[in-house]
Write a structure and sequence with these properties.
Layout: E1 12-19, E2 29-34, H1 39-44, E3 47-55, H2 60-78, H3 84-105, E4 113-114, E5 116-122, E6 125-131, E7 135-140, E8 143-146, H4 153-159, E9 186-191, E10 198-202, H5 204-207, H6 215-223, H7 226-239, E11 246-253, E12 260-261, E13 268-269, H8 284-303, H9 308-330, E14 348-351, H10 356-375, H11 382-396, H12 400-419
Antiparallel strand pairs: 1-11, 2-3, 3-4, 3-5, 5-6, 6-9, 7-8, 7-10, 8-14, 10-11, 12-13
Length: 420
């Protein structure tokens, strides 16, 4: 699990975990978490979280995803003159160009690409930048929602009402970073955020293994602390086959942003009600107008004592022009961070309520895993068996949340024993 520094512990919790899976020789996924360094940056750009799933021979996919997660936060945070949606679009498009140029520079890297999902937490709520079939979900209470639309052949066929059979290649995507010099970016949001909301960013190594049972991901997040839930999701994805790299970032909004000190100064910077934007740049012609009319005003004032009429002819238009230029300079209002909400998400919605069926499926998974561990000579299973007994008692009492929680922990315990 990636160690992260979080200066926002009272209002934001996040966990990131990436696993090679069971069938891959290297990990082509990348992720990055960039919480704002101080309140001023939070007020203007927010917190940034990225997940990318690379593709390409040899180390090409690994490089492509790393370039994406390195480039996007850096470029986005620098684009302070642009509204957040435009800044994120530009950052993802620049990452696309970086990957494309790198791919064309080396025959062994040609054709490399990556998906990308970027989540930004801002004063207005959550904003998403999305390309490919990695996904972002949100858990709100017991409602589990997919906030991104897959850029894939399957989703295009579903939306067109076409039948999907075994001949359809379900892993074919229609959009990614790096393959072409240009890319279209989906922006979602801003979506209002509520205390307790949990966001999950993942590569398809996770969500692909929960296909048909997507609600289970939300159920696990709803019953366990974030670190244990994130680990449990990865463990289950491996148990369901683990054919691909698995990367998961979970982000929980604990409450409103709190004022923090700026660069160690005593006075805190107050949290912003909306993303703070700079005033627009002054056009060059305004500066030219101010210089020209200011000169007229200066000459007119000098000439008033010698040739009053000529002085007035110069001073009056000079004063009017200089006043107009000054008004345009000092009367500028900050840009609006958002003019409207972008995107159509959520695209799918599920109930994340735990029930008997969910608990029984977890119990079956645990039993099969435990039998396999015993068959391999693993003996350190006492902790797992204790957790399973607690889970079974809770199931008998129809305490489904408690039962599911302990079954997931028992599964992770056996998995660690097998790995150790």
């Amino acid at each position: 699990m990636k160690p992260t520094v979080n200066p926002w512990k009272k209002c934001l919790e996040f966990v990131a975990l990436s696993d090679i899976g069971l069938r891959r020789s290297n990990n082509q996924d990348s992720h990055d978490e960039v919480p704002a360094r101080n309140q001023t940056i939070w007020n203007s750009r927010g917190h940034v979280f990225c997940v990318a799933d690379g593709m390409g021979a040899h180390a090409a996919g690994e490089l492509a995803s790393k370039l994406a997660t390195d480039t996007i936060p850096m470029v986005y945070l620098k684009q302070t003159q642009l509204p957040p949606g435009e800044a994120l679009t530009r950052a993802i498009q620049e990452a696309n160009q970086v990957i494309h140029r790198k791919g064309n520079s080396d025959p062994e890297l040609r054709g490399m690409g990556t998906t990308n999902d970027t989540l930004v937490i801002l004063p207005e709520g959550a904003m998403i930048g999305h390309v490919g079939d990695s996904r972002i979900y949100r858990l709100r209470g017991r409602k589990w929602e997919q906030l991104t639309r897959d850029h894939s052949v399957v989703w295009d066929m579903e939306e067109a009402g076409k039948p999907i059979d075994e001949t359809v290649q379900k892993n074919v995507i229609t959009r990614c970073l790096g393959v072409s010099p240009d890319v279209r970016v989906d922006i979602e949001g801003p979506m209002p955020i509520q205390q307790g909301d949990i966001f999950l960013l993942c590569s398809d190594g996770l969500c692909g293994q929960f296909e048909g049972k997507e609600a289970d991901m939300g159920r696990i997040l709803s019953i366990l602390p974030l670190p244990e839930a994130t680990q449990g999701l990865v463990d289950l994805a491996n148990l369901y086959g683990g054919p691909d790299n698995i990367t998961v970032t979970t982000v929980k909004y604990l409450g409103p942003q709190q004022a923090v000190k700026k660069n160690g100064e005593a006075e805190p910077v107050a949290p912003a009600a909306q993303t703070q934007m700079p005033r627009p740049a002054v056009p060059v012609w305004i500066w030219n107008l101010l210089a020209g009319t200011g000169l007229l005003l200066f000459l007119g004032l000098i000439l008033l004592g010698f040739w009053p009429m000529l002085g007035l002819v110069l001073a009056v238009p000079g004063a009017a022009g200089a006043g107009f230029a000054a008004f345009r300079i000092f009367g500028r209002k900050p840009l609006k961070p958002f003019s409207r909400r972008s995107g159509k998400g959520p695209y799918r919605s599920y109930s994340a309520e735990c029930d008997a069926e969910f608990c029984l499926n977890l119990r079956k998974t645990f039993s099969e895993l435990r039998s396999g561990a015993v068959g391999q000579g693993v003996t350190e299973l006492q902790e797992a068996e204790k957790l399973a007994r607690t889970a079974n008692r809770a199931l008998e009492e129809k305490k489904f949340d408690e039962s599911a929680k302990h079954f997931v922990l028992a599964i992770s315990s056996v998995w660690r024993a097998l790995a150790g």
